[in-house]
Hints:
The structure holds two protein chains of two kinds.
Chain A: H1 2-18, H2 35-45, H3 51-63, H4 78-113, H5 118-132, H6 135-149, H7 162-192, H8 195-202, H9 207-219, H10 221-225, H11 227-244, H12 250-259, H13 263-291
Helix pairs in contact in A: 1-13, 4-5, 4-7, 4-11, 5-7, 6-7, 6-11, 7-9, 7-11, 8-9, 11-12, 11-13, 12-13
Chain B: H1 8-16, H2 22-31, H3 36-46, H4 48-65, H5 67-70, H6 102-138, H7 140-155, H8 158-169, H9 173-199, H10 203-210, H11 215-226, H12 228-251, H13 263-270, H14 278-306
Helix pairs in contact in B: 3-14, 4-6, 4-14, 6-7, 6-9, 6-12, 7-9, 8-9, 9-11, 9-12, 10-11, 12-13, 12-14, 13-14
Amino acid sequence: MIPPTLLAMSLIIFVVMHNTPGSPLQPEGANPLSPEDLKNLAAAWGLDRPLHEQYVNFLVKAVQLDFGYSYSYRTSKVTEIIGRTFPVSLHLGTMALLFAVVVGMTLGILAAINQNGPIDYFCTFTAMLGVATPNFVLAVILIIVFVMLLPVIPRTGGWDQPVDWILPTITLGLGPMAIIARYTRSSMVDVIRSDYVRTARAKGLTEGRVILVHVLKNALIPPVTILGPLFAAVGTGSPFVELIFRVPGMGRFFVQSLLARDYPMIMAVFLLFGAFVVIMNLVVDLVYGFLDPRIRYD
Amino acid sequence: MQLFEADPRARLERALAVPTTPEEELEWVPTRRASLWGDALRRLIRNRLAMFGLAVILFFSFLAIFAPLLAPHDYAEQFWDHIAEYPSWQFPLGTDLNGRDMLSRMIYGARVSMTVGLVAQFIVVLIGVPIGAIAGYYGGKVDTAIMRLVDIMYAFPTLLFVILIMTMLGKGLFNIFIAIGLVGWVTLSRLVRAQILSLREKDFVKAARTMGASGGRIILRHLLPNALTPIIVAVTFGIPQAIFTEAALSFIGVGINPPTPSWGQMVGEYQQYIRSYWHMSLFPALAIGLLMLAFTFFGDGLRDALDPRMNE
């Protein structure tokens, strides 16, 4: 499933990029080039050939993971830029997702155990806030509260010290956290009502043992399935978080390359992202099958 | 026999009275009339969070419609001797770096957000519902082709793809509609397809087909009305998504054309100066958050009201 999806993605992006007004040769705000220079530049980048030929050339090189030189950072190869910035984004994304899973599952479990109690309402409300608030809105509020009003965190911007990681992680992780909390709660509630839990209670087990040994094992399976899409959510959100907190990751570069019509960068980032999402979905599917033996893949 | 009592109390008493004679039973049954929409409306009104959401939505709609009357200044008017001021009596929300009144810009900003939310969602419905219905009803190769496309679209990072489309199309409200429409139909058409699939083998559809109804007529008159509630819920949840998308696009500078005020654009432009001028990015950020939250609350309430099975 991965190669055809990526192939189709690259084709759609290629068509969208090349069939819209504007050209990477003459980005907005740049010094105008002479017609001769434009021609040379187009030849150097292979933009003077027919479109189908350009696409085939791109494919042949992309299979060898060669995306050529970036149009806006002309001395660096696309793979170099991504190699430098992707680890930072991956680091941020992983921390955000870890935060989301740990806090989200805890909140969901607490809410389900104290159904319709104050803790439940608190968790539900937090989850709703997290789902409905865009991360750049959250970033602004977090900065104002934790950096300016109560100066817990000394500064924003940069990625040098662990202090710098806190706010971006929370900002990026809160949305996925809310989704995980909701899923965990509803799946916990389902399991708590099931017959075998009633049996466990009937045979006199303590509530703690029922929850820890019998409920959790089955209730935590469904939330695993949404981890795939959540990887995507974290990835899409990161450009905004990286912009606000000035994290030197891939997302920030990506927005700049989009604005500059940096074709090789755009292609590479989209394909990397697509591959990531598809692979993560696959991994999640496999893990799911492993966790729940009732599901079998032929 | 009087079917409908004018006085609600009499109607209630009649509804609660236990029938004893056959005549009474005849009268009793129709007074208990409970339509899907009436019940749903009652459940919705009882939901406090949903009503809070609705109130906020109505408030922002009011601001959007009457912006020229409510705003103290024009959104582009510049006060050169009041640049980057903090909130004061003269400018309740302060002024921005160009000396424009933040309050007026916020009020006009509601226009962009509300318009995008509603119009973009309308376009999404126009694209998504027919595609989903056709895939679901006709099945076979059409279905396979459409669903393959949907699968591919799902692998796209949606927001990034919208940004890509916007950078290619250029700024502007109309282009935002196009971009959101091109990307947003996927989820809706998936939902419509699933609904149609589950309905199309039902007896009433077979009956319609036997009587010679055409495919289009069956879809429009028989299938879609029965799939209406999930569609309505999905559309309600789509509105905050569209509002978010516009804000995100304007945030990174590819959305609305300045000087038209957009909340997202304000947050994006002024977040760099947040340590010095907190008011410039805080107020629009709160407005975006509040409006999205309101639509989410309302959507949640609507879903619970329309689908009582969701409530245990």
